[in-house]
Amino acid sequence: MTIHAEGLVAIAVFYLLILFVGIWAAWKNKHSGEAEGTDRSETIMVGGRDIGLFVGGFTMTATWVGGGYINGTAEYVYLPDYGLAWAQAPFGYALSLVVGGLFFAKPMRSRGYVTMLDPFQQLYGKRMGGLLFIPALMGEIFWSAAILSALGATLSVIVDINIKMSVVISALIAIFYTLVGGLYSVAYTDVVQLFCIFVGLWISVPFALTNPAVSDITVTAVKQVYQSPWRGSVHKSDTWVWIDNFCLLMLGGIPWQVYFQRVLSASSATYAQVLSFLAAFGCLVMAVPSVLIGAIGASTDWNQTSYGGISPREKEEADMILPIVLQHLCPPFVSFFGLGAVSAAVMSSADSSILSASSMFARNIYQLAFRQSASDREIVWVMRITIFVFGGLATLMALVTGTVYGLWYLSSDLVYVIIFPQLLSVLFVKGTNTYGSVAAYLFGMVLRIGGGEPYLKLPPFIYYPGWTVEKRVHHITGEIEEIVIQKFPFKTVSMLASFLANVAFSYLAKYLFESGKISHKYDFLDAVVSKHSGEIMDKTTLVTRGNNIGLSEMAPMKPRLSVTLAAAFTRRDTLPKETVEEEEESSPDSSHHDEE
C-alpha cells in the first residue's frame, strides 16, 4: 500500500478544523464565569455551568460515542460467533444514560458538586476519596490509551503512514486544545466531531451496500451465505454472561467522571436530566451506521475485493472491520471521509477522558487532600500539567502496551464493582460511613480480580459456579492456550456484594462504637459517633429544601475539617437565590461546628 496524498490532505484538513474549533471555543469563553465570581479552575472543569441543550446534547452523546464504540459495534455484528445479539454497547450505554438521568443527574447537579468524587470525599473523608480515585483514574487513562491504539491501527489500514506518528499527532492535538480551553473546547469540538462521524459513516454506507461483492444484508441476517447469520444468537449456556455484560454496560456506564463532567456543567439539574435523555437517543442513532457496516462485512465475498480471498476474521483483523469496509468497498474519496469520521470519534473520547482525570486529581487529590489553601491560579496550573502528563501516559501506553484493551476491560470492571455501589450508598443510603466504604472497596476488588481476566492472561483464584476451560490457538505463535471462562455473572455479584458490605459494615461499626463495645478512642477514621455525638447528624448540608436535595436528608456525616472545607463542595452561585437565603437563615453559628 502506498501513501495516499488525498488521504493525508483529508486528515490534515479535518485535524486543523478540530484544532481551530477548540481554540475558538477557548477564546470565546475565556471570560466565562468571571461576572459570577466563578473560579477559573472550576470553569475549566465544568464550563461555568452554562452549557445549553444544543452543545450539551452533543457533548453528552460523545461521552460514549467514540472510536471504541463505533469500531466495537461493527466488530461484534461482523463476528460469526456473536452478531447483533452480542453488540450490547448501543442499548447498554443508552440505558446507562437513561438511568443516570432518572436517578443520578439531579442529586449530583443540584448539590453543586464539581467532580464525581466530591460526595465520596465529603462523606467518607479525603483518604477514601484518594482510594476511589485510583480505579476512576485507571478507567480514564486505559480508555484513552485503548482508543488511541485503535486509531493507529485504523489509520494504517487506509493510509499507509507510520502508526506511531499518527497516534502522537492525534494525541497532541487533543491535549493542546484541552489545555487551552478545558471543558468548553471539549464540548464545542464534540459538536463538530459527532457531526463528522454521522455524515462520514452515512456517506460510506450506500456505497458499501451497493458494491457487487456484497449480498443482500436482509438475507444474510437470517441465512448462512459467507458465514453465520449476522443477527446472532445467545446460547442458553451464555445467558448469564450476556446479562452480566449488559448490567456492566448499563450500570457501570454511570460512575464515570466523563459523564458527570457533562452533568455538572449543565445550567440546571433539569437540564442535566434532559441532556442525559437526549444523549441516550443520540447513542442509538450513532450506532446504526456501525451496525450496517458490520452487517456489510458479514455479507461480503472477499474474493471479489481488493482485500483478498481470506476474510478479516481469518486474518485476525475483525476488530478493524469498519476501516476495512471503508477501504475495500467504497471509492477512495468516500473512504477518506469515513476515515476522518473514525479519527473524529477517537479524539472526541480521548480529550474528555484526559480532562476528567486531571479534574479529579487537581480538585480531589491536590486541592482537597493536600493543599486546601491553594490559590485558583495554582489549581489551574496543576490541571494543565496533569492534562499533559495523563495525555502523555495514555499515548505512551497506546504505543508500547500490547494488552491495553485487557487493562481497560479490567479497570472498567473495577469502576462497576467498586465505584457504582459506593455512589449508590453515598447518594441514597442513610448511615454508611468510611468503615463500610473500605470494606466494600476490598470486597469488590477481591471478588472481581479473583475471577481472572483472559485478555491479560490473569488466572482466576476464585472459580465461580459453571466455569469451563477453553483451548485456543495463539494466532502468532500457534501454541495452544488453556483459558478459564467464567460462565457465572460474577461481575454483577461482586458489585452487589460490595454494596451489601458497605451497608453491613457501616451499621456494624456504628453499633459497636455507639454501644460502647469498642472504645471511642479506636474510631481512628473519625467516621462514627465519637465524643461529638450530638453534632454528627446535622450540620454539613450542601443544599437545603425546595427541589434541591440536602445531603443531611440522605446520609449522616461528621464535618471533616471545618465549615470552610465543607463549603468547598458547594458552589453557592449555582443554587437558586431563595435556597441560599433560606440556608443562611437556618445555618447554625459556625462555632457550634468546630469545638476541636
From TrEMBL:
<feature type="transmembrane region" description="Helical">
    <location>
        <begin position="7"/>
        <end position="27"/>
    </location>
</feature>
<keyword id="KW-0812">Transmembrane</keyword>
<dbReference type="InterPro" id="IPR052244">
    <property type="entry name" value="Choline_transporter"/>
</dbReference>
<dbReference type="GO" id="GO:0042734">
    <property type="term" value="C:presynaptic membrane"/>
</dbReference>
<comment type="subunit">
    <text>Homooligomerizes at cell surface. Interacts with SEC14L1; may regulate SLC5A7.</text>
</comment>
<feature type="region of interest" description="Disordered">
    <location>
        <begin position="572"/>
        <end position="596"/>
    </location>
</feature>
<feature type="transmembrane region" description="Helical">
    <location>
        <begin position="239"/>
        <end position="259"/>
    </location>
</feature>
<keyword id="KW-0406">Ion transport</keyword>
<feature type="transmembrane region" description="Helical">
    <location>
        <begin position="165"/>
        <end position="184"/>
    </location>
</feature>
<dbReference type="GO" id="GO:0005307">
    <property type="term" value="F:choline:sodium symporter activity"/>
</dbReference>
<keyword id="KW-0739">Sodium transport</keyword>
<feature type="transmembrane region" description="Helical">
    <location>
        <begin position="406"/>
        <end position="428"/>
    </location>
</feature>
<feature type="transmembrane region" description="Helical">
    <location>
        <begin position="85"/>
        <end position="105"/>
    </location>
</feature>
<feature type="transmembrane region" description="Helical">
    <location>
        <begin position="435"/>
        <end position="451"/>
    </location>
</feature>
<keyword id="KW-0325">Glycoprotein</keyword>
<dbReference type="Pfam" id="PF00474">
    <property type="entry name" value="SSF"/>
</dbReference>
<feature type="transmembrane region" description="Helical">
    <location>
        <begin position="131"/>
        <end position="159"/>
    </location>
</feature>
<dbReference type="GO" id="GO:0030424">
    <property type="term" value="C:axon"/>
</dbReference>
<feature type="transmembrane region" description="Helical">
    <location>
        <begin position="191"/>
        <end position="209"/>
    </location>
</feature>
<keyword id="KW-1133">Transmembrane helix</keyword>
<dbReference type="GO" id="GO:0007274">
    <property type="term" value="P:neuromuscular synaptic transmission"/>
</dbReference>
<keyword id="KW-0915">Sodium</keyword>
<comment type="similarity">
    <text>Belongs to the sodium:solute symporter (SSF) (TC 2.A.21) family.</text>
</comment>
<dbReference type="GO" id="GO:0008292">
    <property type="term" value="P:acetylcholine biosynthetic process"/>
</dbReference>
<keyword id="KW-0530">Neurotransmitter biosynthesis</keyword>
<comment type="function">
    <text>High-affinity Na(+)-coupled choline transmembrane symporter. Functions as an electrogenic, voltage-dependent transporter with variable charge/choline stoichiometry. Choline uptake and choline-induced current is also Cl(-)-dependent where Cl(-) is likely a regulatory ion rather than cotransported ion. Plays a critical role in acetylcholine (ACh) synthesis by taking up the substrate choline from the synaptic cleft into the presynaptic nerve terminals after neurotransmitter release.</text>
</comment>
<dbReference type="GO" id="GO:0043204">
    <property type="term" value="C:perikaryon"/>
</dbReference>
<feature type="transmembrane region" description="Helical">
    <location>
        <begin position="271"/>
        <end position="296"/>
    </location>
</feature>
<dbReference type="InterPro" id="IPR001734">
    <property type="entry name" value="Na/solute_symporter"/>
</dbReference>
<feature type="transmembrane region" description="Helical">
    <location>
        <begin position="333"/>
        <end position="358"/>
    </location>
</feature>
<protein>
    <recommendedName>
        <fullName>High affinity choline transporter 1</fullName>
    </recommendedName>
</protein>
<keyword id="KW-0472">Membrane</keyword>
<dbReference type="InterPro" id="IPR038377">
    <property type="entry name" value="Na/Glc_symporter_sf"/>
</dbReference>
<dbReference type="GO" id="GO:0030425">
    <property type="term" value="C:dendrite"/>
</dbReference>
<dbReference type="GO" id="GO:0007271">
    <property type="term" value="P:synaptic transmission, cholinergic"/>
</dbReference>
<keyword id="KW-0813">Transport</keyword>
<keyword id="KW-0769">Symport</keyword>
<feature type="transmembrane region" description="Helical">
    <location>
        <begin position="379"/>
        <end position="400"/>
    </location>
</feature>
